[in-house]
Write a structure and sequence with these properties.
Immunoglobulin-like; alpha+beta; about 950 residues; Jelly Rolls
Length: about 950
């Protein structure tokens, strides 16, 4: 095996893609090499049938392609056949001529491909014998005989409702809540399962459980039932291939038998009731006597909405044990899982009399008296009831067709709990979410921030359960579009989210209104549409997914939807370039809102027009990527018109924001809506708003994700870091200081006195404010992608050091090309920066405060390094910029430069207009207390003669805050 190797080969983001309808799937691979600056110069792809493991009769051979592309390479061979398994492999060449070995084969298997392929019938229990309204789950079974040696067996199945399959008494897969939640009227996923190891020659039996799920269960604010249909139903085909080439097909049809099962009730919000005494042992085995069961009937549900599984399946991804049990002041026996989680409790019972009933009621927090708190659940009951079967030796159970959001569990009825308490080993927490691979990490010298990162990730896990939900505990759990778009970049850094967002965005497109409007939630079960920042998810989410994964196909699929949304905005009101009509959520839950409102003080037409500008710009950029030159120019012109209208409407003649809110300033800066000459003033005004508020924010859902970016990118990174590290209310670390293990919906969901914000809308697991993670990874750790190419093909590394407040930070990301790392630490008088760049990529590294003559890499002076992978070095003002090839690097240089410039970045006093009291403070304290750099600035400035056109006025109070923060005042 050579040193240049392929370490990972994928098809549509998976090493094994089982059951796809994509006619031209795409391949990606990662390479490794101990050498630096290794680039791919060519590749060769081969695809063959699965029964040709040595690739002796390949069906497609790309031959050697002289191209550096190693992601999203589209299959270009003969049409793939339905329900057929393939192998694929790749080899590559480097620019130095080194040739890799063939990769380990990946697996690709097609599904039904077209609706006409389906032969099965949609079946449900005969409604003359089992009422369709039955709350109990349905059980369906069928026996069949196989005759011969079996080569392979595949099930293709789905449900109107949620389902679980069994073959010969064994569960078919570890999927939970299949087929997931889509816009069922338009799109319904089917699953493909490999059951080769579960079938046998001779007699066999297949069984299915059916429950309401999202399809016909009560959902939404009004507990509406039958949202998509009033019948549960199953669709299933089992395809058997024998070693002699024969094929046998078993389908769901009128030969099946039906009964009700032990799940007496299940609902996503309210929980599940399970009666183990109603279990029928062996019901999915071939020898079971089903003569007392009932017949089934066929439903005309059709096949045109069926699509192969797109999303990662929902699974149990982790099991955690409770850390404590206790009795509350109210006398309740309670489990503490130690983590606000989403999933279910697995209950273990000793041998118990039949009919013993155990009730589990789930909640997120305790109240200030130490009692378990259910108020924020609203009508959601989150209650699981289990009736024991009395099985000798004990029994175990976890809910099948529901999930809960909780940290604490009230337990009633567990054997002898009153006498001996609850045994910790009798309970396990099974964490449920879409099974996305983890791709990102972040850590720093402040353990509170590390806890915040922990909370961000757990918030994503809990709310990425098939759709990007707003909360996992109350009677909501909906795919709010605004929440998804503000968090998507943080989400895609932390987890591989391409299949997750591809599936959801296809639903966004399916739910889009004829006039281009976008619902508030997708799938849309509540009505309401077209709020700025919420509807803009139709543009921002596909663009961000493209940026992370280079997925031009998804961008092309969503492009018309993106355009339709911008055209919807253009058609609103009387002024084409302003959006000043309609309802908007505005800066939702901002702290500057009126007392009787959830909507912040920033004018909603300012926010709407800002997002109009942003979305029109992204559509122009998407059009350019897709080669739509004329449309790119047209939408760029529209973008410019909207920017001009924004400036005329929301920026004063003297260059201030007309709305004196943090969010107004943030959007103007981050969405680049200002003339260059005005940016410095608006940035200083924003800084003053934050500093004069005691380094606290007032922003809501719209302003918060971009607030720290607006500060860091305009010379106020010290303020942004101080804002992050603020542990008092309001701020990110306030909830951490209160013991939060996920992100809260409100800055003060729990107040300092232990009371709650409200019962009405108070989720303790709500990821939106976790969007600050994006800034932490990209600015504090400095790991960002360049604008030149998507998917981190060109990486931008630029740590913005935390001054005296942080001394270490590191982020890693498993990109499409491989692992990227950027970390730094202050080691005494030096700063050390370590970076790792994957093969077939390059990076720009900007080292702030560095001087080339004092910079070393692995102990060597930069100019003396031969063939080091360092392609170019340039000394710029107060930094060194390096162009790097792949490999790992360790740079070291004196840290003095960082501290010398930290205050001048924070605020340049020589450019500020100070009031008389502030001038007095500077004159009094500068000679004795200020750093050398600041003293120099002050001494060279005639502060009393600063003219009226120079930047923003800084008050005495604000200046005191700034100087005290930098330890320049007692």
């Amino acid at each position: 095996m050579g040193s240049f190797q392929i370490t990972d080969v994928q098809c549509e983001y998976r090493n094994r893609l089982l059951g796809t309808d994509i006619a031209r799937p795409r391949f990606s691979w990662k390479c490794s090499s101990p050498q630096r600056d290794v680039q791919q110069s060519a590749y060769r792809l081969q695809v063959t049938l699965a029964d040709d493991p040595h690739f002796e009769q390949v069906i497609w051979d790309s031959e050697q392609v002289n191209d550096s592309q190693s992601i999203q390479v589209q299959y270009a061979g003969p049409a793939l056949q339905v329900r057929t398994a393939y192998l694929f492999r790749v080899k590559v060449w480097s620019t130095s001529g080194e040739e890799s070995e063939w990769s380990e084969p990946g697996q690709l298997e097609t599904g039904m491909m077209q609706p006409a392929q389906w032969q099965a019938q949609w079946i449900t229990p005969d409604t003359r014998e089992i009422e369709r309204e039955s709350e109990a789950n349905f059980q369906l079974r069928h026996t069949f005989e196989l005759n011969g040696e079996i080569a392979s067996a595949r099930i293709y199945s789905t449900a109107a409702g949620v389902y679980e399959l069994y073959m010969n008494g064994q569960t078919v897969s570890d999927d939970v809540l299949a087929p997931g939640w889509t816009s069922y009227h338009h799109r319904l996923q089917y699953q493909t399962y490999d059951v080769t190891s579960l079938v046998q020659p001779g007699n066999n039996a297949v069984g299915a459980w059916l429950a309401d799920g999202w399809y016909r269960g009560k959902l939404g604010f009004d507990d509406k039932q039958y949202t998509y249909g009033d019948h549960r139903a199953l669709l299933l085909e089992l395809h058997i291939r024998y070693t002699d080439g024969r094929e046998q097909i078993i389908t769901s049809n009128t030969d099946w038998r039906a009964a009700t099962g032990p799940v007496l009730y299940s609902n996503m919000y309210h929980g599940e009731i399970y009666d183990a005494t109603a279990e029928q042992q062996g019901w999915s085995e071939p020898g079971f006597d089903d003569r007392h069961w009932h017949g089934v009937e066929v439903l005309p549900l059709g096949y045109n909405t069926l699509i192969a599984q797109e999303n990662w399946p929902t699974r149990v991804t982790e099991t955690i044990r409770p850390i404590a049990t206790f009795v509350t002041p109210a006398g309740d026996h309670v489990l503490d899982m130690g983590q606000n989680m989403v999933g279910r409790i697995r209950l273990h019972l000793p041998e118990t009399p039949a009919g013993t009933q155990i009730k589990l009621r789930h909640a997120e927090v305790l109240d200030k008296d130490g009692n378990i708190y259910f108020g924020n659940l609203r009508p959601a009951r989150q209650t699981v009831t289990y009736r024991a079967a009395g099985t000798p030796g004990g029994e175990t159970y976890a809910p099948y067709f529901t999930f809960q959001g909780f940290r604490y569990v009230q337990v009633q009825g567990y054997p002898e709990q009153e006498q001996h308490g609850l045994p910790l080993d009798a309970f396990e927490g099974e964490v449920l979410h879409s099974d996305m691979p983890s791709t990102g990490t972040f850590e720093c010298s402040d353990e509170r921030v590390n806890k915040l990162q922990h909370n961000i990730r757990w918030g994503q896990r809990g709310n990425f359960l098939d759709v990007p939900t707003d909360c996992p505990q109350r009677d909501e759990r909906l795919g709010w579009t605004g929440d998804a778009q503000v968090f998507i970049s943080t989400a895609l850094f932390n987890y591989q989210g391409a299949p997750f967002f591809s599936k959801w965005l296809h639903d966004v497109k399916a739910e889009q209104h004829a006039d281009g409007g976008i619902p508030f939630v997708v799938p849309d079960i509540v009505g309401g549409a077209n709020s700025a920042a919420w509807g803009d998810a139709a543009v921002i989410c596909p663009w961000t997914t493209y940026r992370y994964y280079g997925d031009t196909r998804l961008l092309a699929e969503q492009y018309d939807s993106m355009k339709k949304w911008v055209e919807y905005i253009r058609a609103q009101g009387e002024e084409e370039a302003l959006w000043n009509t309609g309802f908007h959520f505005g800066d939702w839950l901002a702290l500057d809102a009126r007392e009787d409102s959830y909507i912040g003080a920033t004018p909603t037409d300012l926010i709407a027009t800002a997002y109009y500008a942003y979305s029109s710009r992204l559509v122009a950029e998407a059009a350019a990527v897709l080669g739509k030159t004329d449309e790119a120019e047209r939408y760029q012109q529209l973008h410019q018109q909207v920017v001009q209208a924004f400036q005329a409407e929301f920026v004063t003649g003297r260059g201030r924001m007309a709305a004196p809110t943090q969010t107004a300033h943030v959007l103007a800066l981050v969405f680049d809506l200002l003339e260059p000459a005005l940016r410095a003033r608006v940035a200083r005004d924003l800084n003053d708003l934050v500093v004069s508020n005691g380094y606290h924010l007032t922003t809501g859902f719209v302003g918060t994700p971009y607030l720290c970016f607006a500060l860091s990118d305009n010379g106020y990174h010290e303020t942004a870091v101080r804002l992050l590290l603020q542990s008092s209310y309001p701020g990110w670390l306030y909830s951490v200081s209160q013991g939060a293990t996920t992100i809260w919906e409100h800055w003060d969901s729990i107040k300092p006195d232990g009371s709650f914000w409200s019962d009405d809308m108070n989720s303790f697991n709500h990821y939106s404010y976790g969007a600050v993670g994006d800034w932490m990874y990209r600015r504090i750790a400095g790991l960002d992608m360049g604008m030149e190419e998507p998917a981190y093909r060109h990486i931008h590394l630029e740590p913005q050091f935390g001054g005296r407040q942080l001394t270490y930070a590191k982020a890693t990301h498993e990109s499409m090309y491989g692992r990227i790392e950027c970390g730094w630490e202050l080691d005494g008088e030096h700063v050390i920066v370590q970076v790792t760049i994957p093969v077939n990529t390059a990076a720009t590294l900007r080292l702030r405060g560095a001087i080339l003559e004092q910079l070393t890499e692995n102990g060597d002076a930069i100019p003396s390094i031969p063939a080091s992978g360092i392609r170019n070095v340039q000394q710029e003002v107060e930094l060194v910029q390096l162009e790097l090839g792949s490999g790992s690097y360790c740079f070291r240089y004196p840290a003095k430069g960082l501290f010398q410039r930290s205050y001048t970045e924070h605020t340049r006093l020589s450019e500020l207009q100070l009031d008389e009291q502030a001038i007095s403070i500077v004159n009094q304290h500068a000679p004795q207390l200020l750093s050398g750099a600041l003293t120099s600035i002050v001494s060279q400035s005639s502060l009393r003669q600063i003219t009226d056109n120079q930047m923003t006025r800084v008050s005495e109070n604000t200046l005191k805050h700034m100087l005290k923060e930098l330890q320049m005042l007692p």
